[in-house]
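Below is the record:
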Amino acid sequence: MNDKKTRILKATEKLLAIYGFHGLSMQMVAKEAGVAAGTIYRYFEDKDDLLHQLYDHILNHVANKVTQHVSDDMPLKDRFRTMWLNIWNMANQEDAPLINRGQFENLPRRNGTEQRQMEQKLFAKVNQLFDEGKACGLFKQLDNEILSVLSLEPSACLARKHINGVFRVDETSREAAIDACWDAITQH
């Protein structure tokens, strides 16, 4: 990805986090990115295309962060813990502002098989974790998306509450939360 396109995507992400969808204009994006308004249309057909590509850009970033330092030869619980902590660390470092503010899920995205295939490819290591756990009888026989919501997504929620000062999550509490999330998806 070239520098201008990256600047435009980063500017859009920043402005969406501040102003939301309805407050966003292409003029604002151009100014924030330091490019002429017409330059945006070299890379994006329109505002919808910009938002779709931003969704893909953020999703790629998140997938890389979530699966960082995860290898197939790690025990399942170690892989799970690493992914959980990767999400926690990403949220606490404010590495993805839209994610931290809970706005990512509201970004428009393309519907269809191609979008689903891209998401499956990006999160293959997460799906592999859940598939292996189900295959060996360790995890509950639930859809991988449900397993993710029950086990990995609480990390981002807790991190947001921690960042926003709703309550403090110390290391002991964080480890207990990881264990509770693990317990939520394992067979008993």
Notes: The CA atoms of residues 66 and 139 lie 20 Å apart. Residues 47-66 form the longest helix (20 residues). The mean pLDDT is 89. The radius of gyration is 18 Å.
